[in-house]
């Protein structure tokens, strides 16, 4: 597949130095790219770089955008304005044309659809993971208390789905302010049941005790790599990495 250089698109996004892209997703079927920026705008582009629309959909940074894998006209946006919103790309007219608004208690790092498109997984910047169901988007199916609080120089930890099974995988950053915290709690990779929210197992390598997150991200500005976890497509192998 040829590599495209979207020079004009990047110039529009980066020309004001205070504005930049924070999130991105692609639909190969619909041939569109959706991005979110740090000012609350969501931009829809064709795969040849043509801007289709640019609307301010959130009050603050759009930390994550996700297209539903089964209905690629269904878009979820997560913002540090403490909301996740679900949109129909075919009917967007402005910031109030969302299908559902899902308020959270803290800024939200991510909103990820399951592979069957029937559930939505959200991760806030403090200690809560939520699972929503398509049968009732506006009310969480389950709430999972989980320490992964955000720091300025730490890549935001984002929970994600196992590619084959109803499992949630997320990196743990122990928080002594939580009642569930125990002395010398480890920074593990936690696996939860997607229905019950029950902890299924924890993964830990004593040789590498750094923070682990669950999304592939670029290096930090100082060159250090944040925690990385990623399943292979079959879901039988999980690769993790942490640079000090």
Q: Helix and strand succession?
A: HEEEEEEEEEEEEEEEEEE
Largest sheet: 4 strands, antiparallel
Helix proportion: under 10%
Tally of helical segments = 1
Rg result: 18 Å
Proportion of strand residues: 35-45%
Q: Averaging pLDDT over every residue, what do you get?
A: 82
Number of domains: 2
CA(first)-CA(last) distance: 35 Å
pLDDT < 50 stretches: 7-11, 214-227
Q: Can you lay out the helices and strands and say which pair or pack?
A:
Blueprint: H1 7-14, E1 21-27, E2 32-37, E3 41-46, E4 51-56, E5 62-67, E6 74-79, E7 83-88, E8 100-103, E9 108-113, E10 119-124, E11 128-133, E12 136-145, E13 160-161, E14 167-171, E15 189-193, E16 199-203, E17 228-231, E18 238-241
Antiparallel strand pairs: 1-2, 2-3, 3-4, 5-6, 6-7, 7-8, 9-10, 10-11, 11-12, 13-14, 14-15, 15-16, 17-18
Structure, explained:
The structure is a single chain. It is built from 1 helix and 18 strands. The protein is mostly beta strands and 244 residues long. It folds into 2 domains: 1-103, Lipocalin, CATH 2.40.128.630; 114-244, YVTN repeat-like/Quinoprotein amine dehydrogenase (Methylamine Dehydrogenase, Chain H, 7 Propeller). The chain has a 4-stranded antiparallel beta sheet with strand order 1-2-3-4, covered by helices on one side. The chain has a 4-stranded antiparallel beta sheet with strand order 5-6-7-8, with no helix packed on it. A 4-stranded antiparallel beta sheet has the order 9-10-11-12, with no helix packed on it. The longest helix has 8 residues, at 7-14. The radius of gyration is 18 Å and the shape is globular. The relative contact order is 0.09. This is DNA damage-binding protein 2.
């Amino acid at each position: 597949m040829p590599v495209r250089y979207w020079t004009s698109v990047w110039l529009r996004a980066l020309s004001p130095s205070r504005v930049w892209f924070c999130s991105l997703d692609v639909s190969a079927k619909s041939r569109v790219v959706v991005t979110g920026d740090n000012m609350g705008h969501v931009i829809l582009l064709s795969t040849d770089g043509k801007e289709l629309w640019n609307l301010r959909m959130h009050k603050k940074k759009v930390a994550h955008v996700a297209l539903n894998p089964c209905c690629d006209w269904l878009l979820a946006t997560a913002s540090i304005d403490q909301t996740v919103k679900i949109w129909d790309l075919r009917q967007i007219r402005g910031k109030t044309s969302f299908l559902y608004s899902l308020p959270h208690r803290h800024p939200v790092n991510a909103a990820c659809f399951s592979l069957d498109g029937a559930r939505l997984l959200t991760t806030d910047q403090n200690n809560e993971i939520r699972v929503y169901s398509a049968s009732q988007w506006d009310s969480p199916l389950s709430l999972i208390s989980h320490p992964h609080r955000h720091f300025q120089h730490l890549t935001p930890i984002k929970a994600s789905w196992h590619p084959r099974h109803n499992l949630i995988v997320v990196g743990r950053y122990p928080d002594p302010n939580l009642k569930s915290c125990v002395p010398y709690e480890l920074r593990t990779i936690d696996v939860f049941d997607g229905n019950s929210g029950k902890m299924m197992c924890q993964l830990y390598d004593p040789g590498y005790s750094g923070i682990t997150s669950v999304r592939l991200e670029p290096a930090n500005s100082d060159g250090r790599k944040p925690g990385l976890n990623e399943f292979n497509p079959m879901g039988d192998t999980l690769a993790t990495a942490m640079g000090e």
